[in-house]
Amino acid sequence: MRKKIIAGNWKMNMTFDEGQKLTSEIVNMFKDEAVKDVIAVLNPPFPHIFPVKKLIGDTPGIALGAQNCSAMESGAFTGEVSAKILASFGVQYVILGHSERREYFKEDNELLALKVKQALAHGLTPIFCCGESLEIRMAGTHESNVKFQLTESLFDLSPEDMAKVVIAYEPIWAIGTGKTATADQAQEMHAALRRHIASKFGKELANNTSILYGGSANPGNAKELFSKEDVDGGLIGGASLKSRDFIDITKSF
Ligand code: PEP
Asked: What is this structure's pTM?
């Protein structure tokens, strides 16, 4: 059975104190409100990794993620953080291929394939992001565009490794814009991605792959999005910075 996952992407936000407050609130609400059957993944900026890990402790259902990792194993790559280092600090997930990384840091499908392999080699679960620009959606080529991102970065993996990958479909036009894809648009794309994964790795593996939706998800629209058959959770930006909203989203299945 595939997992339901809500991953919070803090992006480049939160000072030390703010991050501690947010994490403590999330952990306490998650426990007090007995949130069940969902994995909440906190993905703070790198310096928060260790202190956030300490606050999460062994809380069942809450996991720790990072927002990026290096394509290299180790060595003289100033400013980079490897999957190996992250794993040694107890990180379990890593967001890879976010559209902001693709756009501002010119990460392409080939580089992302290397990052995915690094993550998997060190036991991290990649949350692999894909999604189309508004221009591509208007041109009607969004499905082939997003399938291509998966083919190029993931289809070289062994079935054993692919089975560990989580996908996040994030239409770029919906990220941070307040403009959400409709639940039907999300479902259509998630089903297409699942069929695409099945065409390479088989139906069973595809049916067990969690596919998250990302793009202006919030407590007001999460229920409808998650009611769709192929939407297994969300990658949440803005709303993950507010504990109440984030927890309400985890309770929206
Ligand atoms: C994201 O950063 O992955 C995201 C979906 O952001 P937001 O929820 O703010 O649109």
From this structure: 0.98
Domain residues for 24? Answer: 5-250
d(CA 79, CA 52): 21
Could you tell me if 233 and 240 are in contact, meaning their C-beta atoms sit under 8 angstroms apart? no
- How many CB atoms are closer than 10 A to CB 251? 17
pLDDT tens digit sequence for 172-199:
999 988 888 999 999 999 999 999 999 9
Average pLDDT over residues 102-115: 98
- From residue 201, give the alpha-carbon distance in Å to each of 173, 190, 196, 205, 206: 29, 16, 9, 6, 7
Number of the ligand 1 atom closest to the C-alpha atom of 240: 8
User: What pLDDT is attached to residue 55?
Assistant: 98
Tally of domains in the chain: 1
Mean pLDDT in residue range 148-155: 98
3-state secondary structure of 6: strand
List the CATH number of the domain containing 119: 3.20.20.70
Buried b vs exposed e over 13-48: b needs ≥16 C-beta within 10 Å? ebeeeebbebbeebbebbeeeebeebbbbbbbbeeb
Mean pLDDT, residues 125-152 taken together: 97
User: For the chain, how far is it from start to end, CA to CA, in angstroms?
Assistant: 15
Task: Note whether 20 and 51 are within 8 A (CB).
Answer: yes
> Which residue is closest in CA terms to ligand 1's atom 6?
237
Q: Name the β-bridge partners of 63.
A: 41
* Nearest CA, atom 7, ligand 1: 237
